[in-house]
Amino acid sequence: MNIILLGPPGAGKGTQARHLVEKRNMIQLSTGDMLREAKNSGSEMGNRVATVMARGDLVTDEIVIGLIKEKISGENGGGFIFDGFPRTLKQADALDSLLKECRKSLDFVIEMKVDDDALVSRITGRSSCGACGEVFHDVTNPWPSSGECPKCSSREQVRRADDNEESLRQRLMEYYKKTSSLIGYYYAKGDHVSVNGLASVEEVQESIAEVLNG
Ligand code: AMP
Predict the structure, then answer these.
(1) Are 171 and 56 in contact (CB under 8 A)?
(2) List 13, 18, 122, 178, catalytic entry
(3) Residue 74: closest CA among 142, 27, 121, 118
(4) Residue 37 falls in which region: left (phi positive, over 0), alpha (psi -120 to 50) or beta
(5) Which phi and psi (to 5°) does residue 129 adopt?
(6) How many angstroms is it from 31 CA to the middle of ligand 1?
(7) How confident is the model at residue 209, as a pLDDT?
(8) Which of 35, 47, 61, 156 is deepest in the core (most CB within 10 A)?
(9) Total Cβ atoms within 10 A of residue 37
């Protein structure tokens, strides 16, 4: 089963994807994670995208399509979760062709519906474990006072460079200008379902499980 998690920054796509990886052995393909890896490794491409990402703009379609192309023909376990991809119609078309080429299909496009006011506080309070990627929030799920990640005992708490109010506003602008039209596109194709992304993490997990279990 291959799915897309669609929604603005802070909708909870990464958190839900991690759960599906654990529970269903699915494979998370997050273009944001891949780009951050490239940036941290100091590769030529990573250096090129660093300022674009810090501003909250989208990187070029060619780069992200290339990243997905590298992964899509490989191991797909319980299926792929496309997280943060596609973000433009060109990317959606490219995904369609790539899936066809390797005889795979798209089963669901799950839109995580949230309102913009919730996003600012979700994003500006967000941190994660630098070792295992567990996600925390300063108010709702704080990094333990022991200083250790409860999942893997790492002491490395990290915050994303673009998780600040200014970049978030730009990321939201990009979402509404370039990505939100994909909702209509997938609705017309018949693949679209939506869940309430404002519910608790567990409730959203349940809603997604209901969709996947049919
Ligand atoms: P994310 O981790 O999905 O929030 O992505 C972080 C940043 O990486 C975005 O603000 C963009 O600059 C870039 N990015 C991630 N995925 C894409 C994509 N599919 N298309 C263009 N830019 C992307």
Answers:
(1) yes
(2) 13
(3) 27
(4) alpha
(5) -80, 125
(6) 6
(7) 98
(8) 35
(9) 13
What's the CA gap between 178 and 170, in Å, rounded?
A: 12
Q: Where are the alpha helices (DSSP H) in the chain?
A: 13-24, 31-41, 44-55, 61-72, 89-101, 116-124, 165-174, 181-189, 201-213
The one catalytic residue in 18, 36, 39, 87 is 87
Cα-Cα-Cα-Cα dihedral sign, residues 162, 109, 17, 114: positive
Pick from 5, 10, 7, 38: nearest CA to 168: 10
Distance CA 14, CA 81 (A): 10
Whether the predicted pLDDT of 98 surpasses 90: yes
β-strands 108-113, 192-196: how paired?
A: parallel
Phi-psi region of 86 (alpha: psi -120 to 50; beta: other; left: phi over 0): beta
